[in-house]
Amino acid sequence: MPPADAWKRNYGRGVRGLQDDCRICPPQVLGQLALLSRLPRTFTREHAQRIADRSFPEMAEVLDAVERIRERRGLSTGWQFSVMEVMMLALASREAGERLVDEYVIAELPRMRPAVASVLKEAGLLRRRLGSGFAQSAYRREWRHMVSCEHCLAWAGDAKPLCDCCREWARHPGRTTSPCERCGRTWPLKDGKCRFCHQVLYEHLGDGPAVEQLWFGGYAPGLNNARPGDYGRDKGRRSVLRREKIAREDPRVHSAMLVSPGQLELFPISASAHARQWARLKDMRLPALTPQASQLVEQFRTSAKEQQWTVMARAVNLRTLRFLAAWLGVDAPLHEADVREVARFGSSWGGRRVVPFLSERSLLIPLERTDPEQAAVERLLDTIPDHLHDEVKVWVRVMRGEGRRPSPAMDWATIRRYCHYHVPVLRKWGKRIDSLREITPKDVEEAVTAHTGNRAHGVHGALRSLFRALKRERVIFRDPARNVSATYVNRAPRRIPSDRLAGLLDRAPTAMAKAVVALVAIHALGSTEIRRLHLTDLNRSAGRLIARRRGDKRTVYLDELTLELLTDWLRERYERWPHSTNPHLFVTQVTALDPEGPPVAKYGVQPIFAQLGLQPQKLRIDLILDEAHETADPVHLMRVFGIAPDTAIKYVKSAHPHRFIKDPTQA
């Protein structure tokens, strides 16, 4: 017997002779358009009993869903009959040709509304309209009590007696509740009128009578800033009138500190030490802008719009430029130190965009900058005892190629890495010695063995470099680190699990991130190589890229995916910074507008991989090791990835250990 017939046979709840009353939710003609929108209904349990034998095409699916829910929840058979009793009303309430039951229909059922919703959802016959769940009474309340605001009569399509604007209006401490002078209603008033009358008068134009026009609920701009008519000009614009009065009584004059190109300084100082105390002028009224200053400010505003800066970036930088131009003028170049000092006033001030703008127009005296790596070395050396300074500075001069004998100059980044290793040791030694001549091989060995792993290797190399340089410059008599050796673990390269690499490009958030990840994971480029790439290094028509590593150049043949990602990045770069003159391929918000064209800092690339949970070096190792598994030729790895011979041998040995015979003495 079909499930629908079994339901009719087992349903013995007393139908009282009427198996299907056509007056209750009468069947409609399929395809006929409704003249009026569907009106809310009120059902009772008797209505459900009078259509108990009505047939529906989805009855079998509903009965199967009821049975599944009953078995899953451990409910009785009586619950099944109770649900099906009201389920008939839900199915009969559908419009002609509809298969799904609207959520609002469930709110009209007399009982068991959550259970009916669960069954329809299980059977795939529910059309969701609300996002608040299947509450028993929320739907009916939401349907029947949608009213307009009591105060301003605005329609918001909800059941709130007051709109949000009127609620805030009534909470104001200055509002008094009394009859309105215009409409006579007793509501919270401002200047004798309610919010509704204020809005009507603000929107009124002309000399005729004000027409009361209703509106949709929400923020009404006319009550705060936009005023189409003249109403409230003497009340709502008190601050404007006050400023106009101050301007009439105390008109702005030009600053007495205006600087001209021919003006001599009474106390000339260097640009690095240049600093004025601008904080005293922060809250003072700005002097009038000269015509040249006004023209420069307008050029800055136009340039900001062309380069599509955000509203906040444009506002904070424009405020700083206007402040300096008002006090100093623009006839003479401005000091970068002044721009930075004003930008420190707070979050509503900024100077990052002002500096390159003035530099392009030769209106900036820049600060005396040093290499950041050199500054880091100087900060580290300041932490060692004073009596060891002269000897350590001799080592720095040798590393920079300035010793007694000519030698290759090391970059400041290498010197900084050495300092990170031996400066802690020097601070410890400085407490008990007066000169590095007192250091013995035992002291060096103890300093090295105090660490393990790569740290011990780094300390050993740094101390050997230090004492070798001092011995060469004849500062010490013998090298205590000459015969000291250190053992450390040389870890073999490892593969990355495939599940961590799956969907790597899809997880990259931006077009720049996708292109960078593709260059690392597909072509094994290092982060330093990527940061130093130029626009001229990319040849999209030939599908080639010139990468530089350790002074050498190598050609990278791009695949179709990487070339497409680079094209997307170039398109986005042009849309964001159409006037950027930075020659590098990858730029950020800071470097794109810098006239000096610096490369992206390493901290601009690291966050890309930090979000992916991987390191670029490990991705590069995984790709080279994968290629080494395919071929045992180290020359091939050297040509493809531009690595050194020792490094290529290491990868081949890790991929094919059986091809390397062990040394009998080490067996």
In words, what does this structure look like?
With 667 residues, this protein is mainly alpha-helical. It is 46% helix and 4% strand. The chain contains 29 helices and nine strands. The protein has helices at 3-10, 45-50, 59-73, 77-92, 103-106, 113-123, 138-144, 164-171, 195-203, 233-236, 238-249, 291-306, 311-328, 336-343, 354-360, 372-381, 389-399, 412-429, 441-449, 453-472, 498-501, 504-507, 511-523, 527-531, 560-576, 602-612, 616-630, 634-641, 645-655; strands at 101-102, 126-127, 176-179, 186-189, 334-335, 364-365, 538-539, 544-549, 552-557. It has a three-stranded antiparallel β-sheet with strand order 7-8-9. The protein has a two-stranded parallel sheet with strand order 1-2. Helix 12 (291-306) packs antiparallel against helix 13, helix 18 (412-429) packs across helix 20 and helix 27 (616-630) crosses helix 29. The longest helix has 20 residues, at 453-472. The radius of gyration is 40 Å and the shape is flat. The termini are far apart. Mean pLDDT is 80; it is low at 11-18, 130-144 and 224-230.
